[in-house]
Protein: 6-phosphogluconate dehydrogenase
Amino acid sequence: MNAAAPVTVLGLGLMGQALAEAFLREGHATTVWNRTAAKAEPLVAKGARLADSVADAVAASPLVIVCVLDYDAVHQLLDPVAGALDGRVLVNLTSGTSEGARETARWAAEHGAAYLDGAILTDPDGVGTADAVILYSGPHAVFEAHEPTLGLLGGATTHLGDDHGLSSLHDVAVLGLMWGVLNSFLQGAAVLGAAGVDASTFAPLAAKSVKMVADWVPGYAEQIDNGVYPAVDATLNTHLASMNHLVHESEFLGVSAEFPKLVRAMAERSVANGHGAEGYASMIELFRKPSG
Ligand code: FVH
Structure:
């Protein structure tokens, strides 16, 4: 596939605009469409062609990228023009679930389109930079054929495998990680804030601690994959004692103890299941099955 191949971008929200801009910057003939046409104006000023309709936009390029609110919006937009997708490569960078991705892949195949699902792990400003991470899943040959074009969107463009659901699965895994870290930071900021320490003062220590924990991840991953959880840094019993301190400090200072209590309840169950002398990674046994 020619590196300056024409490309269509459907959906010009914050992310869609950034995607289209990245293609325009690299000299690709870029056709755009958005439900609210006015959002295309800055792109048209930079050389994009605004299509009259979704069908016109799909017809304009062999590579069609869609990035809208959710998969329902994808289908509202594309179902009426499904016939026009025949012979096209559809790359869906809309966030969703793995089942939604697989269902959309089946739908695309029924209409003769090759399909890649994707997940963007960066904000719009990061698109097109070396730091951007964009994950793809679906047939490797399709990814490979369009990698030169897709590669313009992000530095670490990664194909995860043929299963279309893999990018959405990785996306939610990373989002969960992000919320876990952020919730813990907010708990710490609340506790310290109640004692008169502002969040900005806490920030450098918090960032350093996140980095320290990040360094543990490969070792924990190895334990999880091997199914054995030696206590390298501390036993789960020791972690549980410290969780009690956080719960008590939170209650004493009059801030919410909801989040640390949830974490503590899981650790208590894990200890009750016999993992107290093992490492923290043994908690994976609880995460692997539905509670209650
Ligand atoms: N923005 C970000 O940082 C995150 C990074 C991680 C991945 N997300 C995902 O990207 C998808 C789009 O997000 P967005 O930030 O571009 O979102 P908005 O700026 O709110 O734009 C939404 C676009 O979707 C169009 N749209 C909504 N509903 C429909 C519909 N029924 N039919 C057709 N288009 C629809 C909307 O059109 P309009 O309101 O401008 O007319 C926008 O183009 C999303 O999955 C994030 O999770 C971004």
Q: What stands out?
A: Residues 11-16, 34-36, 39, 67-70, 73, 76-77, 94-95, 120, 123-124 surround FVH (CB under 6 Å). DSSP finds eleven helices and eight strands in the chain. Residues 198-287 form a domain with the N-(1-d-carboxylethyl)-l-norvaline Dehydrogenase; domain 2 fold (CATH 1.10.1040.10).
